[in-house]
User: Fold this.
Amino acid sequence: MSKTILGRVLLGLPGLFILLSGLVFLLAPERAAAKLLLDPQGIDGLSNLRGFVGAPVLAVGISILMSAITQKLEYARPGVFFLFGLIFARLLSFAVDGPAEAFALYLTVPVVAFVLMALGHKLMVSEDAPAAQPSAA
Assistant:
């Protein structure tokens, strides 16, 4: 397996996970809300989960997958900002609200997703770089 293909797979995995998370919020917001200990109030609450959580998360996942498929790394930028924002929010919550029971899990998931994206990017770029020229000594 070439470095580029492995890089595309590593980049695409977080995109697929994020895309599927967005789909769950769009198609089954009650189930998604229960997993995250959220309590949407009636139809308006479900609509807000679909619109304010499901749609943006789905869009981020699609952009990361598009990056992996087309090898246009700039398409992955929304994913980077999304994951950095998520990591920042988890750390802020820890500082302001105190430690949650599942804090390690809450922080590990976006960190692992970011590391996979970074490794994928590195592998995709490394194969595109020109070979090093031997120096004349």
The helical segments are 3-27, 29-35, 42-70, 77-97, 103-128. The chain has a mean pLDDT of 91. The radius of gyration is 18 Å.
